[in-house]
Amino acid sequence: MREHHLNDFKKIKYICEIYKERRFYYRQEYLVGSDRWGEPKQISEETFLKRKRDGFPVEYRHIDKLPPYILSQLQGLDSLIDLALDTKDEEWFRELVDRRNMIF
Prior knowledge:
Blueprint: E1 12-18, E2 23-31, E3 36-37, E4 41-43, H1 45-53, E5 58-62, H2 68-87, H3 90-103
Parallel strand pairs: 1-5
Antiparallel strand pairs: 1-2, 2-3, 2-4
Helix pairs in contact: 2-3
């Protein structure tokens, strides 16, 4: 399969990050003026598969750590757990720890 003709003008790649439970899809563009890759922008699975069929370069990344959305949830819960400890609210503390254990 030949590379898509738009890559003659813009250097673009499509990324699939594979976690244990979920996949995330991104589009990343090379910034010629800065001579570096730009920030990945999230796209749908359908867009990723269409661009792959169209001949754009794709990259698969297998990742062993937790997905970003879970890490952000854990960080938020950890902050609340600290607050519950500071306020000495044992019931709220136990509820938050139980919720954290369900995620983790």
